[in-house]
Amino acid sequence: GPSDAYYPLANQCYSAKVAEFEYKVCPFKDAKQDSTNLGKFAKWDSPDVMLFENGAKCWNGPKRSLKVTWECGANDELVAVEEPETCTYVAVATSPAACHP
């Protein structure tokens, strides 16, 4: 499937500084906000969306999770991270691996 194109990313990690936080995403492994665990790679939510689940539990809420949407780009890069709901994070990353023919 399309996810095969992403296997080269398996040994990489991508980080981005957003506000005062350092986010680090390691495809097929895990994701962190500074030292807080945002989850382990769980599955592909759709062909270009990785889901990380079962992160550190929120003080007053769910376990943290992160959804990473990969977009076609020249560089492997974590370009944006947001927290639209408490402890539920969404990120956008670019990679040549996302440029499907």
Short description:
The chain has strands spanning 14-18, 21-26, 30-33, 36-46, 49-54, 65-72, 77-85, 88-95. With 101 residues, it is an all-beta fold.
Write the layout of secondary structure elements.
Blueprint: E1 14-18, E2 21-26, E3 30-33, E4 36-46, E5 49-54, E6 65-72, E7 77-85, E8 88-95
Parallel strand pairs: 6-8
Antiparallel strand pairs: 1-2, 2-3, 3-4, 4-5, 5-6, 7-8
What does this structure look like?
The protein has strands at 14-18, 21-26, 30-33, 36-46, 49-54, 65-72, 77-85, 88-95. By secondary structure, it is mostly beta strands.
List keywords for this structure.
mainly beta, eight-stranded mixed beta sheet, 8 strands, globular
The mean pLDDT is 93
Q: What does the overall shape look like?
A: globular
Strand content bin:
over 45%
Strand order of the largest sheet: 1-2-3-4-5-6-8-7
Number of helices: 0
Q: State the low-pLDDT regions, or none.
A: none
How many β-strand stretches? 8
N-end to C-end Cα span: 13 Å
Q: What series of H and E elements makes up the topology?
A: EEEEEEEE
Helix content: under 10%
Outline the biggest β-sheet.
Answer: 8 strands, mixed
Radius of gyration: 13 Å
Q: Which class best fits the helix and strand makeup?
A: mainly beta
